Amino acid sequence: MITDQMQQQVASAPDIAIVNATILPMGGGAMIEQGTITLSGDTILAVGPAAAVDVAGAKKVIDARGRIVMPGFVNCHTHIASNMLLRGLLEDVQLFEWLQTMWKLKCNFDPETLYWASLAGLIEMLKSGITCFNEHFDAYAVSPQIRALSDVPLRATLGYGFADRGVYASIGDWSWTALDTFSDKVAAHHQSGNDRIHLGLSPHAPYSCGEDMFRNVREVADALGLVIHTHLAEGPQELKYVAETYGTTPVQWLHRLGFLKGDVTAAHCTQLNDDDIRILAETDVKIAHCPCCNAKLNSGTLRLRCVCEAGITVGLATDGPASHNSLDQFQEMKFAGMIHKDKTGDVEFLKTAELLELATSGAAKAMNRSETGVLEPGKKADVIIVDLDTIHCAPVYDVSAALVYSARADDVKTVIVDGRVLMEERELLLGIDEAEVRSRFREAAYRLRDRSL
Ligand SMILES: [Zn+2]
């Protein structure tokens, strides 16, 4: 006989229980030794010490003894489809020269090439523990990446790219048409894949979009309730262009247009004066901080301490793999720690726990996806298991220090997104052959280069 109590137990039994773990919940939560986390469907059911979490009836039990369980990394600014095809193509130049050469290849993109590039980028992120990302589409064709996301189902906000100035002038007509018909795209894709996939609007930058385009993006975002994702104050060349064209700073120009609100994620922001920081704080704009890319392209360094003191939400991001050549939040955390200690002259600035928050909960908030980035009941079941029992991490006196300064992407063993195990013990559970993806992607990339340069 099945009693009501038994039925209730079956109904609330977890699908997955991860046991014997050292849990880093993030979002300010304290580390839990000998912890257990349970997942039900796409949601976290319970997190706590083993004695406090019921695992009865769990369909799958993962023993994480000696390992770290934490939220998947969130990459709050990147360009997967386009930038995978441009990685390592051009080194040792500044931003504008780099963008011009990249454009020659972008003019020759085709859907099949973008599909293999997207697939390769998604697999690279998955294998480095990134479970959620903020795509800024500067490849302009979106459907190949949406197709790839059905093969590698990460959580994503896909910002359709728009531009109409400079080297990007040729996509002006396409951009205006896409903006005029954006409600069709929303109906087709927004909140699809069990709400994993969101759509956003991504005007490229203050040097590549005119005033009318920024105003129109703001109107469409307000009308459709979508987020915005743009590049802002990225380097000295942008600062000079905006000063000469509009007589002000990029932040103050966009503020004048009524563009800046809490739904905007602004990537880079390396060139902010005190007034700019005050405006970003007042308008609740979020910053995607890409320290590796900014240093490599000589774009400057975000004034992170001032920005944090002003109360601005900041997350870490890799930018596209063309600009600093990998999709790996371990590298961003380590480099952020080092460059900000150096720039501030203060070795106590930016502790390891803060760097971990920037790469998880901070980045989730910075892309307005706070349903992820933290392990607590009710949040999305986006979880990674990291093995620190390696020669390059030993001995582990301090888990946060090991994760930030010693661990590597390959130390991520298991990745769960939306409650589904996508990688277990570094084996992809996706029904796709990684060797084939590498080979098809490489062939497509070489063909693209050969017909473009
Ligand atoms: Zn970017």
Kindly report how far apart the N and C termini lie.
74 Å
CATH fold-level name of the largest domain = TIM Barrel
Cα radius of gyration in angstroms: 22 Å
> What structural class do helix, strand and pairing data support?
alpha/beta
Number of helices: 20
Q: What does this entry look like structurally?
A:
The structure is a single chain. By secondary structure, the chain is an alpha/beta fold. It has 2 domains: 4-71 and 374-428, Urease, subunit C, domain 1 (Roll), CATH 2.30.40.10; 73-366, Alpha-Beta Barrel (TIM Barrel), CATH 3.20.20. It is 42% helix and 21% strand. The chain is built from 20 helices and 17 strands. Strands 1, 2, 3, 4, 5, 14, 15, 16 and 17 form a 9-stranded mixed sheet that branches. An 8-stranded parallel sheet has the order 6-7-8-9-10-11-12-13. The protein is globular, with a radius of gyration of 22 Å. Bound molecules: zinc ion (ZN). Zinc ion is lined by residues 77, 79, 136, 231, 267, 319-320.
